[in-house]
């Protein structure tokens, strides 16, 4: 039988919670400073599609019915109810928009609040597992990781997902330390919220199981509170995603929970082939050295940076001696399993690796603990001078790691913002009645269900890509569903190689364009057929 100590030096230290920790305050201030970078930029940077989709759903809540069970999108015609993860971030942001008015800055601030909370929570968890110095180290990595900084001010559900994952692990550790039904209820609720906000958070069950073993040994398998709390959490998660799938079956609209996104039902787009988004692994991807080397490069360069990766590797070997390592190592294994299962999505999106970041930050905290330990540092310098010197060194290293990570060019994209969607949307608002339904084309392929042009145009309709749009689709939407206008941000490029589409659109009058948009925006009034 494996025995784990019920109380360790680390646990006793966690019981003497100091009322104030200057190092943590400085780390939080550093986290805020990093996340203020380009906070005022509209949602036209990296992963703009995902951010704009979330902003679109938020706007429907703010301007319509505040019902979290009926999230709506602008690319779903008049109905637009979409199957997706539980829209907690969208709902909270909608409340802010109702009070203070719609603003991309306030939307980013809501995400930023979750991100800063996760910095504080990872410190608390690190302190409980490995001691104060390790907790500070974990919080520091969370504060300055280029990926966590970028996504920590992006309007994306991945940020609250990570926050609830950490909170759930803390809550279960708190419960196992001193079992009580109310603590189990809180822990179960936080576990459910993590995966309701975004399903990949289900991997949090791995560290929770590790905590149970570290506190109870094999008795964890007989712990009723653990089984009951876990069962309730899983039941709530399953119920929501079953409901989201029912929405898809009714409306044909989804945000890629289990069904492929980027499609419309046959009554909207008959006989149409769609290039769909697929997240699960393929054998070709899993045996590709390019995939695994790319993942390693992404963790080294974007998620951790070089020093962070070295610290996490050091922590991997030191954690067994530093405290309760089992939940953290199971967390890493669970998140790695997620990468394997969802390899296609992992390859396409950097934020899909975020469920592993709390575990890696905790390992970094163990490896870098001496740098955040005042008792250790004062061996070399007076404590005040040591803290000041280490603050300067760590901040400089964080800034250099951020600049060298390619996060600015790759995700912030200051030289490649898709601001033309804003200009095109503003023009559409000026010429299209508010209740008119529109059809848009934003991309050549993998662009069906694009939220970009309809969001900035503040209009309802349907969105296709160059590969899926056809005269039959437009005619069906025009006659059957009342589509009145057609727009494409591809400009003249839309009609290259598409003589069928060119001939069809020439049968309707064009919407007059200002000089700055000519050749850049296709605008057709489907209400006005040309005389033949």
Give structural notes:
- The protein is mainly α.
- The protein has helices spanning about 10-15, 20-35, 50-65, 90-100, 105-130, 130-145, 145-150, 160-175, 180-195, 205-215, 225-250, 285, 290-305, 305-320, 325-340, 345-350, 355-365, 375, 385-405, 405-410, 420-430, 450-455, 470-480, 500-505; strands spanning about 435-445, 460-465, 485-490, 510, 520-530.
- It is about 60% helix and about 5% strand.
- It has a five-stranded mixed β-sheet with strand order 2-1-3-5-4.
- Helix 8 (about 160-175) runs antiparallel to helix 9 and helix 8 runs parallel beside helix 10 (about 205-215).
- The longest helix has 28 residues, at about 225-250.
- Residues about 1-10 have low confidence and may be disordered.
Which characteristics define this entry?
24 helices, 532 residues, mainly alpha, five-stranded mixed beta sheet, disordered N terminus, 5 strands
């Amino acid at each position: 039988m494996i025995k784990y100590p019920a109380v360790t030096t680390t646990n006793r230290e966690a019981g003497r919670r100091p009322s104030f920790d200057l190092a943590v305050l400085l780390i939080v201030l550093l986290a805020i400073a990093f996340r203020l970078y380009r906070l005022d930029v509209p949602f036209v940077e990296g992963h703009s599609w995902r951010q704009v989709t979330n902003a679109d759903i938020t706007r429907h809540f703010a301007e319509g019915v505040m019902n979290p069970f009926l999230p709506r999108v602008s690319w779903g015609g008049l109905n637009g109810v979409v199957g997706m993860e539980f829209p907690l971030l969208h709902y909270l942001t909608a409340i802010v928009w109702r009070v203070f008015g719609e603003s991309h800055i306030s939307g980013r601030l809501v995400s930023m609040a979750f991100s800063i909370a996760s910095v504080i929570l990872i410190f608390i968890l690190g302190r409980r597992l490995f001691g104060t110095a390790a907790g500070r180290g974990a919080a520091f990595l969370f504060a300055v990781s280029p990926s966590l900084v970028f996504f920590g001010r992006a309007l994306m559900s991945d940020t609250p997902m990570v926050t609830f994952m950490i909170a759930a692990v803390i809550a279960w550790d708190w419960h196992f330390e001193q079992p009580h039904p109310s603590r189990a209820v809180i822990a179960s609720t936080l576990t459910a919220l993590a995966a309701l906000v975004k399903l990949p958070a289900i991997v949090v069950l791995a560290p929770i199981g590790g905590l149970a073993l570290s506190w109870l040994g094999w008795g964890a398998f007989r712990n009723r509170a653990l089984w009951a709390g876990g069962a309730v959490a899983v039941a709530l998660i399953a119920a929501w995603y079953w409901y989201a799938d029912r929405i898809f079956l009714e409306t044909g609209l989804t945000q890629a929970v289990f069904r492929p996104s980027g499609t419309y039902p046959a009554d909207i787009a008959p006989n149409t082939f769609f290039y769909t988004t697929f997240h699960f692994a393929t054998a070709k991807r899993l045996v590709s050295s390019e995939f695994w080397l790319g993942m390693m490069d992404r963790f080294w360069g974007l998620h951790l940076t070089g020093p962070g990766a070295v610290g996490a590797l050091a922590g991997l070997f030191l954690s067994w001696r530093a405290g309760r390592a089992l939940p953290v190592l199971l967390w890493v294994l669970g998140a790695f399993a997620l990468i394997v299962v969802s390899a296609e999505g992992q390859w396409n999106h950097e934020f899909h690796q975020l469920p592993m970041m709390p575990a890696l930050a905790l390992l970094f905290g163990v490896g870098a603990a001496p740098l955040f330990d005042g008792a250790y540092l004062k061996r070399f310098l007076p404590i005040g001078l040591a803290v000041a010197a280490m603050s300067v060194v760590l901040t400089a290293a964080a800034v250099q790691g951020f600049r060298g990570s390619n996060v600015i060019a790759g995700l912030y994209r200051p030289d490649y913002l898709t601001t033309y969607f804003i200009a095109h949307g503003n023009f559409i608002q000026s010429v299209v009645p508010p209740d008119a339904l529109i059809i848009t084309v934003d991309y050549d392929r993998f662009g069906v269900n694009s939220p970009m042009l309809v969001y900035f145009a503040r209009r309802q309709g349907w969105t296709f890509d160059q590969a899926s749009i056809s005269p039959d689709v437009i005619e069906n939407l025009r006659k059957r569903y009342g589509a009145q206008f057609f727009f494409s941000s591809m400009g003249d490029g839309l009609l290259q190689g598409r003589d069928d589409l060119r001939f069809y659109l020439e049968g309707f009058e064009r919407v007059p364009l200002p000089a700055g948009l000519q050749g850049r925006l296709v605008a057709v009034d489907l209400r006005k057929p040309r005389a033949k």
